[in-house]
């Protein structure tokens, strides 16, 4: 196929160079954005009197027919074309003749690809936000259905203090709410139209960039044409936000892997989201959680690659920027696949409250409550801390737990300890006494439910 940029050169490039230079295998996924952008551009050209209205009508009808043919499979991508823009223009010209050649008036592939990528990324941000909302809804469901389940809270992966399982789930809900906020913030800077910036310097035609931006659903236009074609900050922001989402999923995955092991037994993952071993019949492997954990590194790699590609590029457009799409697309695909598997995996997960409670009872995780009990009786906290530590040491030596240590033993440690210590050390009491805002008492957790419900309603109203 003859190159559309022939003129300065004869367009005779090596087949090896053609293959190396081609991006249609990657950017063909933006065909709808490319065509919709071209329709708006044709409309603007006619409105401004740059082309005739009947020519714009022909262009729009021709573009619409190409879009329908691609969607139905009646038309295949021509992989000999350099990119999706050249493919659409070549197909349009083959259908309309000379009129098709007028479409590219007052624009460049530089602002065209910038437009397509912004439109595509903006739409995918909206999709991922919706998926995160569903993920948070599942976390809410899990928490609300298991309000009485008490589990050990951990620091340094050591049993620390008792918490409600619902409280632990709400921690992840808060993380994913922040992820939604980050994406919504990123969307603001993605929602800027570069079209009309042309190659880098603007155009001699009297175009209406605001009209074209509004027709495509953008909130503003790029105010500097050089920045319009060279800005990929929003790509970095998006992949950075995607990396944070994956980090949150990875931390969650690590806990699901641990909790589903025989050593913990806190949860049972559905057979639908686990696999078996090719040699060990007893195995039930949490492969989906492990894959999400592993794919996190992939998205991190996309971010580092994107930053590295862009770090030394002079203004304005350079061919290096062709590479950025693969990073953005891979981050989008990976995040969506992981959230997609996570939603039903959590929804079908069984919570083993008895196993959690047994772990709570054997970890001396109410030792802080013993120290608090003594502090309330007027003993300085550091002294109370030491007495509680001595009580734990006694339990370890005798095989007892704090709830069953004889009152005589307690009084030998400190005379201020009375029979009411056993009520203070009851696991449910320990949980319910964590009354500070954001704490693990049921009252506090119910407030967290209300907060998360309100945030989800706010997001839905914003959409």
List the helices and strands and how they pair.
Blueprint: H1 15-21, H2 24-27, H3 31-47, H4 53-72, H5 84-96, H6 109-145, E1 150-155, E2 158-164, H7 165-190, E3 192-193, H8 209-215, E4 220-221, H9 225-230, H10 233-259, E5 267-268, H11 287-310, H12 324-347, E6 350-351, H13 353-361, H14 367-376, H15 381-398, H16 407-413, H17 421-425, H18 427-432, H19 442-462
Parallel strand pairs: 3-4
Antiparallel strand pairs: 1-2, 5-6
Explain this structure.
This protein has helices at 15-21, 24-27, 31-47, 53-72, 84-96, 109-145, 165-190, 209-215, 225-230, 233-259, 287-310, 324-347, 353-361, 367-376, 381-398, 407-413, 421-425, 427-432, 442-462; strands at 150-155, 158-164, 192-193, 220-221, 267-268, 350-351. It is mainly α. It starts with 14 loop residues before the first helix and ends with a helix.
Question: Spans with pLDDT under 50 lasting ≥5 residues?
Answer: none
Which strands sit side by side, in order, in the main sheet? 1-2
CA gyration radius, whole angstroms? 30 Å
Order of helices and strands: HHHHHHEEHEHEHHEHHEHHHHHHH
Largest sheet, if any?
Answer: 2 strands, antiparallel
Task: Return the structural class.
Answer: mainly alpha
Strand content: under 5%
Can you count the helices? Answer: 19
Give the proportion of residues in helices: 55-70%
Total E-strand runs: 6
Distance between the termini: 44 Å
Mean pLDDT: 94
Overall spatial form:
elongated
């Amino acid at each position: 196929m003859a190159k559309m940029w022939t003129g300065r050169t004869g367009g005779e490039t090596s087949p090896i160079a053609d293959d190396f230079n081609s991006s249609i295998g990657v950017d063909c996924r933006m065909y709808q954005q490319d065509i919709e952008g071209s329709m708006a551009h044709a409309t603007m050209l006619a409105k401004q009197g740059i082309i005739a209205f009947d020519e714009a009508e022909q262009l729009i009808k021709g573009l619409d027919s190409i879009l329908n043919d691609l969607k139905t499979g009646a038309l295949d991508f021509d992989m000999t074309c350099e990119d999706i823009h050249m493919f659409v223009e070549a197909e349009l010209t083959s259908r309309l003749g000379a009129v098709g050649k007028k479409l590219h008036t007052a624009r460049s592939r530089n602002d065209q690809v910038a437009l397509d990528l912004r439109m595509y990324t903006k739409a995918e941000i909206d999709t991922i936000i919706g998926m995160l909302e569903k993920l948070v809804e599942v976390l809410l469901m899990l928490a609300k259905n298991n309000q009485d389940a008490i589990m050990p809270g951990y620091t340094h992966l050591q049993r620390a203090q008792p918490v409600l399982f619902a409280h632990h789930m709400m921690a992840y809900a808060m993380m994913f709410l922040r992820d939604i906020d980050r994406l919504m913030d990123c969307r603001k800077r993605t929602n800027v139209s570069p079209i009309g910036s042309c190659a880098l310097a603007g155009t001699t035609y009297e175009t209406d960039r605001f009209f074209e931006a509004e027709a495509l659903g953008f909130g503003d236009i790029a105010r500097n044409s050089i920045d319009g074609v060279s800005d990929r900050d929003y790509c970095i922001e998006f992949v950075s936000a995607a990396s944070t989402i994956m980090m949150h999923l990875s931390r969650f995955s690590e806990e699901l892997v641990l909790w589903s092991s025989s050593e913990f037994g806190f949860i049972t993952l559905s057979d639908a989201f686990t696999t078996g071993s090719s040699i060990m019949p007893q195995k039930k492997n949490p492969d989906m959680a492990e894959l999400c954990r592993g794919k996190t590194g992939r998205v991190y790699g996309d971010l580092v690659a994107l930053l590295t590609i862009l770090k030394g590029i002079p203004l304005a457009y350079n061919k290096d920027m062709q590479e950025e799409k693969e990073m953005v697309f891979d981050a989008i695909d990976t995040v969506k696949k992981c959230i997609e598997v996570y939603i039903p995996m959590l929804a079908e997960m069984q919570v083993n409250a008895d196993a959690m409670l047994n772990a709570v009872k054997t970890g001396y995780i109410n030792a802080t409550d013993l120290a608090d009990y003594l502090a309330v009786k007027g003993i300085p906290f550091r002294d109370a801390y030491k007495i509680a530590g001595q009580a734990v040491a006694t339990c370890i030596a005798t095989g007892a737990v704090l709830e069953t240590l004889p009152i005589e033993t307690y009084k030998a440690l400190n005379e201020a300890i009375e029979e009411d210590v056993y009520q203070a050390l009851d696991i449910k009491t320990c949980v319910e006494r964590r009354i500070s805002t954001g704490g693990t008492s049921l009252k506090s957790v119910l407030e967290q439910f209300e907060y998360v419900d309100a945030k989800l309603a706010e997001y839905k109203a914003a959409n």
